[in-house]
UniProtKB/TrEMBL annotation:
Lineage of source species: Bacteria, Bacillati, Actinomycetota, Actinomycetes, Pseudonocardiales
Annotated InterPro entries: UPF0478
Protein name (database record): DUF948 domain-containing protein
Residue segments, region Disordered: 114-135
Transmembrane segments: 6-27
């Protein structure tokens, strides 16, 4: 065997070792890809029920929002009716009520002033009578 043959045998052995290391790495990479495929399959199987549940939930939420829209429209109509009723009440009874309140206030004030004046007159007459009775 010559030096060329020995070098060829060493090179062939090194190539075999390189092929073995690459084969082991490829086998490990294949297992990793298989596990990733299984994980993706499981995730896909588990997301279908979740997506169906989310779809049902969104459908129910939309139904409730439609109800809320109806309630809001009714509340707006009631608010408009109350405003109109308030305007009618103010127009029909507001003026007379204000006039009645002002009249009753004026009568009460006049009665108090008259009572006060009467009380002062009675007090003056009562004092004069006492002075005159002492003499």
């Amino acid at each position: 065997m010559s030096a060329g043959h020995i070098a060829a045998l060493i090179a062939a052995g090194a190539f075999v070792l390189l092929v073995l290391f690459l084969a082991i790495a490829l086998i490990k990479l294949g297992r990793t890809l298989d596990e990733a495929t299984i994980a993706i399959r499981k995730a896909h199987e588990n997301t279908d029920p979740i997506l169906h549940g989310a779809n049902d939930t969104i459908t129910h939420v939309n139904t409730q929002l439609e109800r809320v829209d109806g309630i809001t429209a009714n509340a707006q109509a009631v608010s408009g009716n109350v405003s109109a009723l308030s305007s009618v009440f103010t127009a029909t009874l507001g003026g007379p009520l204000v006039k009645t309140a002002a009249f009753s206030y004026g009568v009460t004030k006049a009665m108090r002033a008259r009572r006060k004046a009467k009380a002062e007159d009675n007090g003056k007459h009562a004092r004069r009578g006492r002075k005159g009775g002492r003499r």
